[in-house]
Amino acid sequence: IEVLDNEGRSALHWACLHEALDVVQVLLRYEASVNCQSLMWGTPLHCAILKKNREIAMALLQYGAAVNARDYVGNTPFNMAVHSSRKDIARLLLQYGAEVTIANDLDETPIAAAIESGDFAAVQAIAPLIRAD
């Protein structure tokens, strides 16, 4: 189950991309690497967020997925959830310790993505979580 394709994707990446929750659960039970990093897709959690699949994201998090892992452009799963306006997934990631201030390689933070997409509710939800140091 740890064989990778030429872009570093595992069976778990593919199961997430195809939204096959039953396959994801089997792979996790057989200890597939939940944090395997592919060249272009990030971790399986990034794939679940890309597909906007909360159930798969939750399964991965329950098996220890790194909530603040970065993909090839520096996006965390939280960055992706906010950018795609998936408040339910963003809240789930926050419950598992997502950091709200991590900027991607373009120096875009989750709150900047929310502002850019006009998602005022997301801005209101994220703003109180940002601490001034």
Automatic annotation (TrEMBL):
| Keyword Repeat attached | yes
The record, for InterPro entries, names: Ankyrin_rpt (IPR002110), Ankyrin_rpt-contain_sf (IPR036770)
Keyword Glycoprotein on entry: no
Q: Which domain of life is it from?
A: Eukaryota
Q: Which is one Pfam family of this protein?
A: Ank_2
What PANTHER family does this protein map onto? ANKYRIN REPEAT AND PROTEIN KINASE DOMAIN-CONTAINING PROTEIN, ANKYRIN REPEAT-CONTAINING PROTEIN-RELATED
Name under which the protein is recorded: Ankyrin
